[in-house]
Amino acid sequence: PNKATDFTEYFDDIIGVTKDEKEKILDIVLLFKPGFANYIKTKPISPFQKQKDMPDGSLEVRLKLIPNKELYALLLSYGSEVKIIKPQQLADKMKEEYVKALALY
What is the pLDDT along the chain (105 residues), one digit of tens a residue? Predict the structure, then answer.
């Protein structure tokens, strides 16, 4: 048994299981389109997310997470239903991935 790591908290700041100890926690703000907001309310990204209903029916979600492959894959799976408001480095990473994917077609 691993007694050096408290696994009750180890996964709190990541999506999935990949944790790069060199990466820092990011303050992430996402905006989901109105038609997709209920999906995120019923299937949250993280049990620790903060969410706010916006006047137009969209949903703002705030997360504090370490970026990893699972987070990138999850955000890409939402396609055009989500906009990454911050941080800019995460928005740039997603844009880069979409450009690479588009080049395949």
Answer: 777 777 677 677 888 787 888 889 999 999 999 999 999 999 999 999 999 999 999 999 999 999 999 999 999 999 999 999 999 999 999 999 999 999 999
Q: Which runs of consecutive H residues, i.e. helices, occur in 15-85?
A: 34-42, 69-77
Nearest to 67 by CA among 18, 101, 105, 34: 18
Range 8-38 burial, b when 16+ CB lie within 10 A, else e: eeeeebbbeeeeeeeeeebebbbbbbeebbe
Query: What does the alpha-carbon distance between residue 7 and residue 84 come to, in Å, rounded to a whole number?
Result: 29
The tokens of 98 are what? Answer: 């979409």
The Cα 36–Cα 52 span in angstroms is: 14
